[in-house]
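User: Hi! I'm working on a homework problem where we have to compare a predicted structure to a textbook description. Could you give me the structure for the chain below?
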Amino acid sequence: MNPLEYPQWAFVTVAVILGALIGSFSNVLIHRIPRRESVAFPPSHCPHCQHRLGPADLVPVLSWLFLRGRCRYCAHPISPRYPVVELISATGYGLIAAAFPPATAGLGFLGLWVLFTLLLVGSAIDLDIQQLPDELTLPGVLLGLLFAVVNALSGGAAGLPTLEEAVKGALIGAGVLVLIGNYGSWVLRRFREPRFPDHPIGYMQISLAGLVGAWSGGLAGAGASETASLLTAVAVGSAAALVSAGLNVALRRVLRIPDALTLGGLLLSLVLGVYGFGPGLILMLQGGLAAAGAASLIAAFYWWIRGVPDADDSEDYDPIAMGFGDVKLVALIGAFLGWEKLLVALAVAVALGALLGLVVRLLHGQRQIPFGPYLAGGALIALFYGEQIIRAYLGYLG
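Assistant: Happy to help. Predicted structure tokens:
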């Protein structure tokens, strides 16, 4: 269908209006989630004078312009971020509607709208407090898998992942980032063991899962499919992590697993895989990453349900190379986009981080932008241009 025809533009117009309304709600999430406030009660109100806002105060963008950026009731300035978020949301919804209309994407556009909102809200919160809330990222992973099922039931759509690709994207995405973080932290500790390991499950168990998963793909048997090998690696690696956590609970202390064994052993395993040992380099790499990703999500859901203890003011801590919130955000992106576009998103995010990070440092000194917004930017570029980038890359190799 020609995008200039009325039905297509009608759908895009509705998407823009809906995006602006969702943008208004996104502002509520951005303000309230970090403060652990209900997003439903009390109703929208001025954060300065607490006066409840009426319908005329809540029209996206236009209310802010009409009120000249001030509260109707106390004249306190309203941050320009409110209309900016609404405009970004409206634009994003419109672009997704134009690129993934129902005629070609089925109901897939719904999931992509959800992804856009999660990325927008998460990025804004990360910029504010340098944290990515579990309330966004972990349910987002599950939503990504759910929409993969919806996509399949609605007939599937080119460019959107199947359930298998979504699962693989979530696990490998989390595994890539968490292992990069673990190796980076190991280097920052000058290859010493952590002084304050998590109890009962944390980075030690994740590294163990990666090592075990690298060697477990071959247990699926000769001639097994790549999917069967990957699921075997995930199952055995996750079981190893859970057994280690169970022993910690039973012993009421941390049973240390040396990084030299797990992280060093994983590197050695991949070298051996190059020379034909074990299941082979590709299966070992995929199995190690997916198993580590599965263990990191198990740990993430555990600590989300249990609650992470409040940090004290002590200066005693282990240096960390990568925030765990970024690991969960990458799993979310992988669940919505699949593993191939996830790799594109990661590459673009690293490039954006290097380029824009240098610009920000030159303009604002020591101010730093967290990695979450770069990941969001990489995800959006991968969403719209991922297939072209992948084809160009494969053409370059071929």
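For your comparison, note the following. Residues 6-32 form the longest helix (27 residues). The CA atoms of residues 224 and 351 lie 37 Å apart. Good luck with the assignment!
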